[in-house]
Structures are given as C-alpha cells and as structure tokens.
Amino acid sequence: MDLLDRYLQAVKKHLPWQRQDDIIAELKANLEAQLEDKEAALGHPLTAAEAEDWLKQLGHPIQVAARYQPQRSMIGPALFPFYLYVLKVAFLWATVIWTIVAVVQIAAQTPSELTVLAAVLRVPGMLMTTAAWVTLIFAIIEFVAARCPGKFPMLAPPAAHWTPGDLPPLGQQLSGGRKPRSFAHALTEVIFGFLFLVWWLLVPRHPYLLIGPGVLYWHASPFQLAPFSVLFYWWVVGVNVVQLAWRSADLIRGSWPRPRTAQTIVVSAIGLIPLGLLLSVPDHAYVLLRNPALDQARYSAALTSINLSIQWSAVILCAISVLELLWGIGRLSLDRYRKHAAAMR
User: Fold this and answer.
1) Of 25, 46, 65, at which residue does a domain stop?
2) Which of 115, 159, 293, 336 is 20 to 30 A from 39, comparing alpha carbons?
3) How many domains does the chain have?
4) pTM value?
C-alpha cells in the first residue's frame, strides 16, 4: 500500500539513525499483518478513506517514532516529540550562530589560546540558555493547551490535526523542488522568530548579547554609531514582528502546510525598507568619531574602512533581498499561470 509506505517513510525520519532500518522492517511487518487481518475481517481491501482512518488511529509519525526512543518524563507525551525536535534544531542553529560570533570576536582581538578557550567554555552556558528558553515556551504551550482545550487547535495533540493524506509522496518533493512543511517545522519557525525578537529587543540595553566581550572594546573605542541606527533598529523590529505575527496566525488557523509565497513576497518587500535606509545614509557615515576634533587625523582611515565595509555589506544584502523578492513574484506568477492553464483544459 502506497499510503502505508509513505507513513513508514515519515516515521523513519524521526527514529534513532543507528536502528532505523531494523525498526522500520519490524514495524512494516507488524502493520502489514494488521492490514491483512483488517481486510480479512472486512472482506475487502481497505478503501482510501478506511486506510487513512486506520493510519490516523496508529498516531502521528513523530509519536510512533517516539515509542522507540528511551523513556523520558518531561513536557507532555503529546508534545514531547515536537519539543525534542525543536530542541535539536535550536541547538544546531545556536551553535552555528555562536561560532560565527566567536570567530568575529577572536578576529577583532589578538588571537591566542586563551581567547579560543574562553569562547569554547562559553558554549555550554549558551546551550543551557537555549534549552531553558525552548523548555519554557513548550511548558507554556502545555499549560495553555491543558487549560483551554479546543480554543487553540494548533496546541492540540498532533493526532488531532493531521491526516495520512498529507504525508509527502515517497522520495518526492512538492512542485518547484520544495519539501512539504510539517507542523514541527512551522512551530520551530514561530519559536525561533520569538526568540530572535526577544534577543533583538534586549540588545540595546545589553549589547553583550550581540558582541559579547567585544562590548568593552566598543565602549573604549573612539567610534560610535550614527543617529540613523535607531530608526534602522526599529525597522528591523517591525519586519520581524510582521513575520512572526503572520506565521503565528498560520499556526493558529492550521494553514501552516499551505505554500507561503505571498508571505515571503510581503516580508521581503518590507525588509527592503531598512536596507534602503542603510543605503540612503548621507555620505554613508554609519559610524562616527566620538571626538572628531581630537581623533580625525589618527582614525580617519579606519573610519573610512569601517563605513565602506558596512556600505558594501548593505549593497550585497539589498541585492540578495531584491533577487529573493523577484524569485517569489516569479514563482507566484508561475503557480497562478499553471492553475489557470489547468482550469482551461
């Protein structure tokens, strides 16, 4: 049965990689035996609707895979597989971002074994902070879902809002080479969007969150950000609020599996505004001297280099954003053309 194979494919993605093949072989044999018994009892092969009902009773693929994981007791059993998935993704991206920031900080200082060791020793603390935020968010989700059942359908157990018919085809992707978005993927995007927004709002009062120990060098340096940075900062906040609100609304409405080409276009268009502000700064003076009269001769070359680097970074980011916007518009136009052509046949 194609639907059963698709179901097993979805389960396999969330199994321990060392035992995936063995578990899937065992699970497939058991389910095929159950299928034969069920069809024998009914006296006919299962229809598509009956097959979907049967698989839905088995449970969401992530929950089925969770039965083969070591026993754990935290968060709720319905949400824990999603919590674990999000936590793994959060650790991955937190480590990537931390590595980039650490490399920049070390490059800005005089590299030594001590600076590298200090950066490495801060990794456990960073991962613990990440885990604490993710756990807190899932604890809130668990609390709200338990006390307000039915009011927030996206917080219900996964089996309540999934159907086997939504499983991706075997070894295939959606049109345009895009993989189907899962509930866990959509929830991860919302959580990461929230965490980024909180982090970004804390940066002005706690610049250590952005540049770490480099904040001491910044305060002692002769440079300061130009006044435009305040407006740029709040535009970035606005763009992320729009994106987070849109994705949260999709999650609440249950429309997260649908293509979000229109959302990408709108967010990309709004995102061009802060980049446009960067490019329109007079004389591209993004960074200024705190005491121009005293430091102009000594630091003018460094100041010019810093501003030029920021300018070219803004140009590259703007070019990427424009290409992303044009790509989204082209993809939306192509999808509509295909639908129109299909309707005309």
Assistant:
1) 65
2) 159
3) 3
4) 0.51
Q: Are 82 and 88 in contact (CB under 8 A)?
A: no
Partners of residue 288 on adjacent β-strands = 224
Task: State the CB neighbour count (10 A cutoff) for residue 300.
Answer: 12
CB 223 within 8 A of CB 287: yes
Burial of 139 from C-beta contacts in 10 A (0-12 / 13-18 / 19+): middle
Q: Within the chain, what is the greatest distance between any pair of CA atoms?
A: 93
Rama region for 258: left / alpha / beta (φ>0; ψ in -120 to 50; rest): beta
Nearest-angstrom CA–CA distance, 46 and 65: 24
C-alpha 170, offset from chain centre: 25
Rounded CA gap, 213 and 183, in Å? 38
Q: Are residues 50 and 169 in the same domain?
A: no
Answer yes or no: do 86 and 215 share one domain: yes
| One pLDDT digit (tens) per residue for the chain, 345 residues | 678 888 888 888 778 777 788 888 888 888 888 888 888 888 888 888 888 888 888 877 877 877 776 655 456 666 676 777 777 777 877 776 777 666 656 655 555 566 666 767 777 777 888 888 888 877 777 766 655 555 545 455 444 555 666 566 665 444 444 455 667 677 778 888 888 888 889 888 888 777 766 677 777 888 888 888 899 899 989 999 998 998 888 877 777 667 677 788 888 888 888 888 888 888 888 888 888 888 888 888 888 888 888 888 888 888 888 888 888 788 778 777 777 776 766
DSSP type of residue 316: H
What would the two tokens of residue 119 be? 């950066």
Q: How many residues does the chain have?
A: 345
